Amino acid sequence: MPATKTLREREKELQALLAHPVGLGLILALETRYQGRGGKVRPPDMSVVTYILAHEKERGLISG
To answer: What is the distance, to the nearest Å, from the Cα of residue 44 to the centroid of all Cα atoms in its chain?
Structure first.
């Protein structure tokens, strides 16, 4: 099992993906997948990065 990443490391990864059109598509696909798993829709005032980080933190995928 891979080591968990810190919150800061994962946030930087996601921010870097947002800088590229392909990365944005990956981020949005991840959001959709997490919505399907958790059943929670991202609130309109929450960034997609924050939504992903919260989902991953709840599931122990990131630390910190």
So the answer is: 15
